[in-house]
Design a protein that fits this description.
The protein is α/β, with parallel strands linked by helices. The protein has 13 helices and seven strands. α9 crosses α10. Bound molecules: adenosine-3'-5'-diphosphate. The site of adenosine-3'-5'-diphosphate has 21 residues, from α2, α4 and α11.
Length: 289
């Protein structure tokens, strides 16, 4: 791994947090993917732990899962060898999170079904990242939002540039059979998102079970749920709440007008050819039917 700075390492043209190794990333090339595996992939701060909770609940209620002390152990990060577990020994269904780009995912994944990609409007994404950087010891804590924004736009952050991640995953749309979801649609109608995930994964949950998933993955319930809210992470590594605001449009409280205009221009330049429709504002949220 090439060390970019204290917090970011680089390998195969991709940025990582420094708690992984080249050997571990190389093992992914021959990682055997089972038909029943489920992967939730995101650019960081797009709703990963939220989708993680939903998928865990769906699987628990439809046939059961082995019990693990918390969601991170239940659904580990593929690219970080926490505890160096041998995943081939895990019973099915195995659940994984990842922030990897498609080029680094296990090649067998292409033919398998269980893939969900969640994206979030990048203005809220960078604001969430800014706040998270202040509480997470594995990330540099920029003094100002301006500093965070510069690093984010340059891709000088753990998962590289948001624009590249979204573009790379959207480009796999036709080959990979992925369920694409947005954070915003989950905020607007969590029940509809849960049903979408169930039907994509082929889980047949009763109405009562769907209700339970929705209840247990609501912001309020998750914030109090010790298995789901990451308060199990030692304070030295994470000194605040993983679940912060959970809203659409918080960027308006943080971006200056000039920053917003510049961001819009960069977004246009980078993504104009892509058919991406984000909800940027909580007012748009209310106007939805
Ligand atoms: P905010 O910082 O804007 O509140 P990730 O899991 O990818 O790191 O994303 C974290 C973001 O998802 C945080 O956003 C967090 O609050 C939000 N989030 C997590 N669970 C949520 C839920 N049940 N409902 C709404 N937002 C949620």
């Amino acid at each position: 791994m090439e060390r970019i700075d204290e917090y970011i390492c680089r390998y195969k043209n991709y940025n990582f947090g420094c708690s992984t190794t080249t050997e571990h990333i190389d093992t992914l090339e021959t990682f055997h993917v089972r038909d029943s595996d489920i992967f939730v992939v995101t650019y960081p701060k797009s709703g990963t732990v939220w989708t993680q909770q939903i998928v865990i609940l769906i699987c628990e209620l439809d046939g059961g899962l082995n019990d693990y002390p918390n969601n991170m152990e239940q659904m580990p990060w593929l690219e970080y060898p926490e505890g160096r577990q041998d995943y081939s020994l895990r019973p099915s269904p195995r659940l994984f999170n990842s922030h990897l780009s498609p080029a680094l995912m296990p090649p067998e994944l292409k033919e398998k079904k269980g893939k969900i990609y969640v994206m979030r409007n990048p203005k809220d994404n960078v604001v969430s990242f800014h706040h998270f950087s202040q509480i997470c010891a594995d990330l540099e804590s920029p003094r100002t939002f301006t500093e965070t924004l510069e690093r984010y736009l340059e891709g000088n952050v753990g998962a590289g540039r948001w624009f590249d991640h979204i573009r790379a995953w959207c480009a796999t749309r036709d080959q990979y059979n992925i369920l694409f979801l947005t954070y915003e649609e989950m905020v607007l109608d969590l029940r509809a998102a849960v049903i979408k995930i169930c039907s994509f994964l082929g889980n047949n949950l009763s109405e009562a079970a769907i209700k339970e998933v929705v209840h247990k993955s609501s912001f309020k319930t998750m914030k109090e749920d010790k298995k789901a809210n990451y308060r199990f992470v030692p304070k030295e590594r994470l000194s605040g709440d993983f679940l912060r605001k959970g809203k659409i449009g918080d960027w308006k409280n943080v971006f200056s007008v000039a920053q917003s205009e510049r961001f819009d221009q960069i977004f246009q330049e980078q993504m104009a050819d892509m058919d991406l429709k984000f909800i940027w504002d909580s007012a748009e949220q209310k106007e939805e039917p």
